[in-house]
Design brief:
The structure holds two protein chains of two kinds.
Chain A (H helix, E strand, L loop, with lengths): L1 H35 L6 H18 L3 H5 L3 H30 L4 H23 L14 E4 L10 E4 H23 L1 H11 L1 H6 L4 H26 L11 H10 L5 H19 L3 H4 L26 H13 L11
Antiparallel strand pairs in A: 1-2
Helix pairs in contact in A: 1-6, 1-9, 1-10, 1-11, 2-4, 2-5, 2-9, 4-5, 4-9, 6-7, 6-9, 7-9, 10-11, 10-13
Chain B lengths: L16 E9 L6 E8 L4 E5 L6 H8 L4 E9 L2 E2 L5 H6 L2 E4 L11 H8 L7 H11 L1 H5 L10 H13 L5 E5 L7 H16 L3 E5 L3 H6 L3 E6 L2 E6 L1 H6 L1 H7 L3
Parallel strand pairs in B: 3-8, 3-9, 6-7, 7-8
Antiparallel strand pairs in B: 1-2, 1-4, 4-5, 9-10
Helix pairs in contact in B: 3-6
The chains are: A mainly alpha, B alpha/beta.
């Protein structure tokens, strides 16, 4: 029983947390690709930037949250989303739009976004320093321990407050995105432009507007994902190093250009990571008696050590590119 | 006083479309070497001619998809050469490309809605009208356009362009690759759309059938006008028949 609780805490909850963050990040990558046809490498740094904005705002008004009873960082999130969306639109205007106007190949835009990555990281480090900082400045991180009403279940299920917020916000984001893409005029125009940009233009759709809307959505979602991740652990200026590969793996696993695929891909990569570092010894130990005597279970039975977690999305990426380059939902090939 | 006797269009109004000495092509290289065209609001105009004559090029030049290096194109008397396509849509022009003319992952209804993107207040009324022109689309409205047959796709494409309530509809080979049955159906719709007050200019490979419904036919060769007359007169002309209609 306790083993099961251990599994829920370390795989189900941890996997959902990682999966949600990857999913929200991958949605942005996939939307940008479907509208502008290039892999936006600076996306993970837009996530860091969003979290950094929250950190700045929270440090500036630390008493706001405790007065209301919500973490200050969450109150500041909408403002940070707005700022990150503005940053995204600004970066597009300053760097990507001139390149597009010259009709460059997508690879030029990709390299351009690498430059933006370096620039953003430098900027964030300049102001935030290089060490990790908690987004809980004056607030206390609540930890919920839910005891199970079963006999013999001594260990409780452990969920932290930011993780609960994360689950709720992820669901809200996914529902809102689905409604936007399927019901709103702009959302449909976005899908139309992703399908056939020339025809969208011939229909009178202003493609510049759609590009701007895409950046606003991608920037806003990036701020959410970055902030929620920083709330769960801590804010670090080099957060993006650990995000870039997984979110691209997620977008590609789901099929590039498919927002729902990106969500599925995010959870696939998130759960693959947590399952790979999970110590299976814990689940197998109760059955030790039924194993032959010569077989002794090693105390650590994980596929990879936690410190090598990042290889998991890398392997998923390689595998999907080799065997199913269009992803699970038949997206485009990057 | 004009001696033009066609009663529906007021004789003093400028023609819907008028092109004079159009030279143009991709970049600075000309494919069109001086094309003239006049089309009135109540007419169906058909451009025919051999491969490489510049038929589709002319249509694209009218819709601002390639450079007009010389000459002028007027829409209801106003010069429009080298305006961007989305500006032309605002001025009442609709264009149906030959290929890739639907949004495959959008449903039929969403495809049509995109056609009215600039006039969202008209969507309901125009949807009804398009469904009346193309009844099969009503039943298929929830299906992704990419799953439809070629003929139905062509209907979606034409319906999409009609949603913006154009005064001039440009069709690039609307019957390419369709069975004779669908071809006749499409031509039949073209006549109906024209009767509803939309001027139509189309490029066609099926020259005989297309000229049969044409008020005006333009035979192009090597980027220039070879014959210009009513559709019936062109069909009856032995020279046209010998050189361009396969005898």
């Amino acid at each position: 029983m306790n083993e099961l609780v251990f599994f829920i805490n370390n795989v189900l909850i941890a996997g959902s947390v990682t999966g949600s963050i990857y999913a929200i990040g991958a949605i942005g990558v996939t939307l940008i690709f479907s509208i502008m046809r290039f892999a936006h490498f600076a996306h993970a740094d837009m996530m860091t930037f969003g979290a950094f904005m929250v950190l700045l705002l929270t440090t500036a008004f630390p008493a706001l949250g405790p007065a209301i009873g919500v973490p200050t960082a969450l109150i500041m999130l909408p403002l940070a989303m707005l700022l990150t969306a503005l940053l995204a639109v600004g970066i597009d205007k300053a760097f990507y739009k001139p390149l597009r106007a010259h009709g460059v190949k997508p690879i030029v835009l990709v390299i351009g976004s690498l430059g933006v990555t370096l620039m953003l990281q430098g900027l964030i480090r300049l102001f935030a320093g290089t060490s990790g900082q908690s987004l809980y400045v004056d607030d206390r991180k609540e930890i919920l321990r839910i005891a199970l009403p079963f006999e013999g279940a001594r260990a409780p299920i452990v969920v932290t407050e930011p993780q609960l917020y994360l689950f709720v916000i992820t669901i809200v984001c996914v529902v809102a995105l689905a409604l936007f893409l399927n019901r709103s005029r702009l959302g449909k125009a976005m899908r139309a432009m992703s399908d056939n940009p020339e025809l969208a233009q011939a229909s009178g759709i202003n493609t510049n507007t759609i590009v701007a809307v895409t950046w606003v959505i991608a920037g806003g979602l990036a701020a959410i994902a970055g902030t929620l991740l920083s709330l769960d652990v801590t804010f670090k200026p080099d957060l993006s190093f650990f995000l870039l590969l997984p979110i691209f793996a997620a977008a590609i696993v789901g099929g590039v250009g498919h927002p729902y695929g990106a969500i599925a891909g995010g959870f696939v990569v998130g759960f693959a990571e947590t399952l790979a570092v999970f110590n299976w010894n814990v689940l197998l130990r109760p059955f030790q008696d039924s194993f032959p005597a010569w077989l002794e279970l090693p105390s650590n039975l994980a596929f990879v050590g936690t410190e090598y977690k990042i290889v998991v999305p890398f392997f998923i990426l390689v595998a999907i590119l080799v065997w199913r380059p269009t992803g699970l939902f038949k997206g485009k090939v990057i | 006083m004009s001696h033009d006797a066609s009663p529906p269009s007021p004789s003093n109004a400028p023609p819907l479309l008028s092109a004079r000495g159009v030279h143009g092509g991709y970049g600075s290289m000309n494919i069109l070497n001086g094309v003239d065209m006049t089309l009135h609001a109540d007419e169906v105009g058909v451009i025919v001619g051999p491969n490489g004559a510049g038929k589709s090029t002319m249509l694209k030049a009218v819709f601002g998809l390639l450079n007009v290096n010389q000459g002028e194109i007027l829409l209801s008397g106003e010069p429009i050469q080298n305006l961007a396509p989305n500006q032309l849509v605002k001025r009442g022009m609709g264009f149906v490309p030959q290929e890739k003319n639907v949004f495959p992952s959008l449903t039929v209804k969403e495809n049509l809605e995109m056609g009215a993107f600039l006039k969202p207040q008209n969507v309901k009324r125009m949807l009804e009208q398009v469904y009346e022109f193309f009844p099969p689309l009503r039943d298929k409205r929830r299906q992704p356009a990419g799953e439809l047959s070629g003929g139905q796709r062509q209907m979606v494409a034409m319906g999409r362009a009609l949603m913006a309530e154009p005064t001039l509809l440009l069709l690039d080979e609307p019957t390419a690759g369709l069975s004779p049955l669908y071809m006749n159906e499409i031509f039949d719709r073209v006549k109906k759309i024209n009767a509803a007050g939309v001027g139509i200019l189309m490029v066609e490979q099926n020259a005989k059938q297309a000229l049969a419904i044409a008020d005006k036919g333009f035979v192009l060769a090597a980027g220039q006008n070879r014959f210009t007359d009513t559709g019936a007169a062109l069909l009856a002309d032995p020279d046209v028949a010998r050189s361009f209609l396969g005898g």
